[in-house]
Design a protein that fits this description.
The protein has five helices and six strands. The protein is α/β, with parallel strands linked by helices. The chain has a six-stranded mixed sheet with strand order 1-6-5-2-4-3, sandwiched between helices. Helix 3 runs parallel beside helix 4 and helix 4 (about 125-145) packs across helix 5. The chain is globular. The protein binds ligand AR6.
């Protein structure tokens, strides 16, 4: 299962997987960070579709088309804001990965790219977030052996190294 996971450094808006995941907020109406980059690259159609979705709860995900992106779909997941780890953050972050992957499966998507959800503005410690991302993904791949590829797109060297270290441990 491990060989289906790829770790790369780069910009998620350039990825050619069938779906890319957005680290969104509950309004789903755009923002900064990776969310801003995805909306800029996808164009106005994305925002118009997002406006019809009535937001999304933390830990859950909703899907739209990809518009001007190479990816056919965008899956908008809402990560938790880090509050010291005592407010269910881990479970909520795990939900982002599990629910995004489930949505992908429901839409017959076989390849997906994830950013490091919650580790920017939302302050989730990257070392802890990476463990959640990898363990949820491996669990999904074990249960869904036909799924083709999961890419973790890292915007910085530090996050990239953390994913590598995590993958080397398992
Ligand atoms: N490609 C891949 N990763 C990126 C890119 C990119 N183009 N740009 C940033 N990252 P963040 P969050 C990385 O802050 O913590 C938004 O305003 C970034 O380095 O984008 O979940 C939303 O609207 C970091 O590792 O998302 C929400 O309000 C990771 O993506 C809030 O921020 C996530 O950082 C969500 O905060």
């Amino acid at each position: 299962m491990k060989e289906k996971i790829k770790i790369i450094k780069g910009d998620i808006t350039k990825q050619e997987t069938e779906a890319i995941v957005n680290a969104a907020n509950r309004t789903l109406l755009g923002g900064g960070g990776v969310d801003g980059a995805i909306h800029r690259a996808a164009g106005k159609g994305l925002l118009l579709e997002c406006m019809t979705l009535n937001g999304c709860e933390t830990g859950k995900a909703k899907i739209t088309k990809g518009y001007n992106l190479k990816a056919k779909y965008v899956i908008h997941a809402v990560g938790p804001v880090w509050n010291g780890g005592t407010r269910g953050e881990e479970k909520l972050l795990a939900g982002c990965y599990a629910n995004s992957l489930r949505l992908a499966l429901e839409h017959r998507i076989e390849s997906i790219s994830f950013p490091a959800i919650s580790t920017g503005v939302y302050g989730y410690p990257p070392d802890k977030a990476v463990k959640v991302a990898v363990s949820e993904t491996l669990k999904f791949l074990r249960e869904n052996p036909d799924f083709r590829e999961v890419v973790f797109v890292c915007f910085d060297e530090h996050t990239y190294r953390l994913y590598e270290a995590e993958m080397n441990q398992i």
